[in-house]
Write a structure and sequence with these properties.
11 helices, three-stranded parallel sheet, about 190 residues, mainly alpha
């Protein structure tokens, strides 16, 4: 926590907002690991982003309780695949909703929408089989805490020339490149 996964994802989202894709943002929690709720959230968010999901949105609004998950998933993927527009689906904190069923839903959407949907996740865990497979095939990239943490030179640039070498080293050893901790240290130093 605090390395900037959500910030990076939101920057990607806002960069694409207003472009050729319908941009969808969902912040997940543990309750979203229920597969019906997870898929319903995706359908409703896509509909709210301007990509009409018609009857699927009605089904999602009542929790997908009147039909099978497999049928709704198949119809959702087909509706996206057959549309003229693309969708960017940003799922923040996927680790909170992650389970075999949500993995399966994302895998099916990725496979069955034939390039019409890009899925971007922020998660603390990339070791799930479906994510690992996407990384291996080059269909996904992973940006982890190592990629997001501040380097020594970035820490120095954050504080300017106002601190001694000893102070820089002390701050870097305490914050270990963690962006949130670096911001707090900057406040403490009074900058």
């Amino acid at each position: 926590a605090g390395y900037g996964k959500s910030v990076l994802l939101s920057q990607w989202y806002y960069k694409n907002l207003g472009g050729e894709s319908h941009c969808v943002w969902i912040s997940l929690d543990e309750a979203d690991s229920d597969p019906n709720q997870f898929l319903a959230l995706i359908i409703l968010a896509i509909d709210c982003a301007g990509h009409e999901m018609r009857q699927l949105a009605v089904l999602a609004d009542v929790g997908l309780v009147v039909t099978s998950l497999a049928t709704v998933l198949q119809r959702t993927a087909a509706m996206i695949a057959n549309s003229d527009s693309r969708i960017l689906l940003c799922l923040d904190d996927y680790h909170r909703a992650h389970c075999d069923e949500t993995d399966m839903i994302l895998r099916e959407l990725a496979d069955q929408t034939y390039g019409k949907m890009r899925i971007c996740l922020s998660t603390r865990d990339v070791s799930t089989p479906s994510l690992t497979n996407l990384l291996i095939t080059g269909d996904a990239i992973s940006i982890d805490a190592q990629d997001l943490k501040f380097s020594d030179s970035e820490v120095r640039a954050t504080f300017g020339n106002d601190l001694s070498d000893e102070d820089y080293k002390s701050i870097q050893s305490k914050v270990e490149g963690w962006p949130v901790a670096l911001q707090l240290a900057k406040l403490l130093v009074g900058q």
